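Priority: medium. Attachment 1 of 2:
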């Protein structure tokens, strides 16, 4: 009985952590089939790299593929791509379509793998 309670508590804590982490990324695409939902979430940020690589943060776009069952996160996978340095000035205005081609086909918004 104690083990079952611990397992449920761990699953609940994992879900709370993932929800807080995922809510920092905007949902740009969502598909639902019955109890299962697939989302693509996106975040544009300045990422600090290790000092031996660069002293300065660099612009990145991160996309996260999220699978949910009854609203609970089952699985997620994230991919980050580098943005050109010119994106630093307009980081808040970078649109999802601007660098869509740099992502794998399963994370692109454009149909047909453009």
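Attachment 2 of 2:
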């Amino acid at each position: 009985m104690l083990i079952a309670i611990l397992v449920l508590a761990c699953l609940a804590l994992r879900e709370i952590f993932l929800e807080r982490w995922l809510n920092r990324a905007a949902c740009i695409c969502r598909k639902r089939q019955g109890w299962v939902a697939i989302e693509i979430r996106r975040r544009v940020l300045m990422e600090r790299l290790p000092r031996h690589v660069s002293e300065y943060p660099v612009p990145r776009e991160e996309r996260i593929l999220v699978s949910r069952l009854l609203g609970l996160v089952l699985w997620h996978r994230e991919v980050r791509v580098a943005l050109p340095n010119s994106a630093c000035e307009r980081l808040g205005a970078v649109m999802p379509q601007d660098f869509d081609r740099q992502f794998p086909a399963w994370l692109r918004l454009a149909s047909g793998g453009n």
